[in-house]
Design a protein that fits this description.
Elements: H1 6-16, E1 21-22, E2 39-46, H2 50-61, E3 70-74, E4 91-94, H3 96-104, H4 108-114, E5 117-119, E6 121-126, E7 132-136, H5 137-140, E8 146-150, H6 151-162, E9 170-174, E10 178-182, E11 192-196, E12 201-209, H7 216-221, E13 224-241, E14 249-255, E15 258-264, E16 269-277, H8 278-286, H9 289-301, H10 308-323, E17 338-341, E18 347-356, E19 360-361, E20 364-366, E21 372-373, H11 381-401, H12 409-437, H13 442-457, H14 459-469
Parallel strand pairs: 2-3, 2-12, 3-9, 6-14, 12-20
Antiparallel strand pairs: 1-13, 4-8, 5-8, 6-7, 10-11, 11-12, 13-16, 13-17, 13-18, 14-15, 15-16, 18-21, 19-20
Helix pairs in contact: 2-6, 2-11, 4-6, 10-13, 11-12
Length: 471
């Protein structure tokens, strides 16, 4: 396990408070005869969402792992994908590292043939002070900042490769209802049992939990899970813009109640992610469409009260930056106006934080939301999950290459250490940003505004931020 500093440990335990819970497997292990087991597998992946399906595809396509028998258990029935002219209201912002993973698995070609929108600019600004930070792909990196893809399109692209005739070592069971797990406690005698509602039982050496934030695999492991709710919801919708533009900019404005973000879809449409209080979110869902559009344009354009002391300090600091040849943040792009929303595209989902203190146990590993959950304000949630997929596949392939068993503690601990070293700082940073920007007291506004101005002025810091966000 990745060693944490005492300050980080105190932070997580303090924030968790009563949300910390230790869960153990609900049933004691029971001995099974081989004739009671329907099928034995090397690896079983519980959960067939975007991360779970991509992991199955990555294992199946890796030449060192192609001899392993893999089973993917997906709780939902198999659904036929239909390409529709109108965009879905659920999208993800994929970073460069995720694009590279998708390219290596030949998934990206299916996405490009359908539709994907590059993000080449980002502008984030504070409604309480107008301090901003902007990112331009041409200045900071050699490629686009991110790519906006619909969730269902991404899953369809993954499934096209996953169900390819060339991928012969991966089986999929749709509509799989799992009643419980009996996990091995010893590395040397690893055999995990997965019991289904229909009476079937599968066994495997390595069980991988890709079953989301309420992971039953994680619960069966009996590890601590630190979690809390933000008492906020994310309101999503598909928007029609007032004017047709190139639309390659992602916009995010920090309101006193939380961030509102527009993600580009094409020249005329954007996707909304609006984080706000639960009561306000419910009100937004019930508003007539025209009133909802008015409320959204107010959120993007309305002038909120500013502290005169904060304005004086930020103005002086901007002048100092300009005097030494650094950007003062005065130049900015204006966000688009929203003309209308796509009917029935509004929805909302709760926002929260989650951290599993362990990602692995004998013969078990966690990936994606089963291991970690973050606020969507930085668009990092699914990218962290795809990072898990990349590292787990590589460490497992290295273990096979060096003659280790697929459940050997050495590679599992390397996987856990590698991912926690990346995921935990990202989670803490995102949580800290959320808390910093939802406080409207003038001293706090002043500190974050000066910090934003300084970060925006220093190109090396912006490059460092983007470098971490894209890996």
């Amino acid at each position: 396990m990745l060693p944490m500093s005492s300050s980080v440990r105190r932070f997580l335990l303090t924030k968790a408070k009563t949300y910390v819970r230790t869960v153990t497997t609900s049933k004691p292990a029971t001995s099974f005869d081989d004739d009671q087991i329907k099928q034995n597998y090397d690896i079983i992946i519980a959960g067939g969402g975007m991360v779970g399906c991509t992991l199955a595809c990555a294992i199946g396509k890796n030449s060192l792992l192609s001899h392993l028998k893999v089973l993917l258990l997906e709780g939902s029935p198999q659904q036929k994908y239909e390409f529709k002219p109108e965009y879905s209201n659920r999208v993800v912002a994929l970073n460069q590292n995720t694009k590279s993973l998708m390219n290596s698995l030949e998934i990206w070609q299916h996405i490009e043939k359908a539709r994907v929108q590059p993000v080449r600019h980002m502008q984030v600004w504070d409604a309480s002070s107008n301090a901003l930070i902007s990112f331009n792909s041409a200045d900071i990196m050699d490629d686009d900042v991110a790519y906006i893809v619909e969730n269902d399109l991404l899953l369809h692209a993954v499934n096209k490769e996953l169900t390819s005739p060339d991928l012969k070592n991966v089986n999929i069971v749709y509509g799989a209802k799992i009643s419980g797990y009996e996990l091995s406690k010893h590395e040397a005698l690893t055999r995990n049992l997965i019991k289904m509602n229909n009476g079937d039982t599968y066994s495997c050496k390595l069980l991988i939990g890709a079953d989301g934030a309420n992971s039953a695999v994680r619960n069966a492991m009996g590890v601590q899970y630190l979690s809390w709710n933000y008492d906020h919801m994310g309101v999503v919708a598909t928007l029609h813009l007032a004017e047709e533009t190139e639309n390659t900019t992602a916009w995010q404005r920090w309101l006193p109640t939380g961030p509102v973000a527009l993600l580009p879809l094409d020249s005329k449409r954007s996707s909304l992610v609006w984080s706000t209080t639960v009561d306000h979110a419910k009100q937004l869902l019930q508003l007539p469409e025209e009133q909802f559009v008015d409320a959204l344009n107010d959120a993007l354009w309305k002038q909120y009260p500013h502290s005169s002391a904060v304005e004086a300090c930020t103005s002086w600091f901007g002048s100092c930056l300009k005097s030494i040849g650094l950007p003062d943040g005065a130049e900015r792009q204006l966000p688009p106006s929203v003309k209308s929303i796509v009917s029935a595209s509004r929805a909302a989902f709760p926002l929260g934080f989650g951290h599993s203190t362990r990602y692995v146990a004998p013969g078990v590993a966690l990936v994606g939301d089963a291991a970690h959950r973050v606020h969507p304000l930085a668009g990092q949630g699914v990218n962290l999950g795809f990072g898990d997929v990349k590292d787990l596949t590589e460490f497992l392939a290295d273990a096979i290459y060096t003659g280790l068993d697929i459940t050997h503690h050495s590679w599992l601990e390397r996987y856990e250490s590698s991912r926690q070293r990346h995921n935990v700082p990202t989670q803490i940073a995102v949580d800290a940003l959320y808390r910093l920007y939802t406080v409207d007291l003038p001293p706090v506004v002043l500190v974050r505004s000066l910090g934003t101005q300084l970060t925006n002025a220093l190109q090396p810091i912006k490059k460092l931020i983007m470098s971490h966000a894209t890996t």
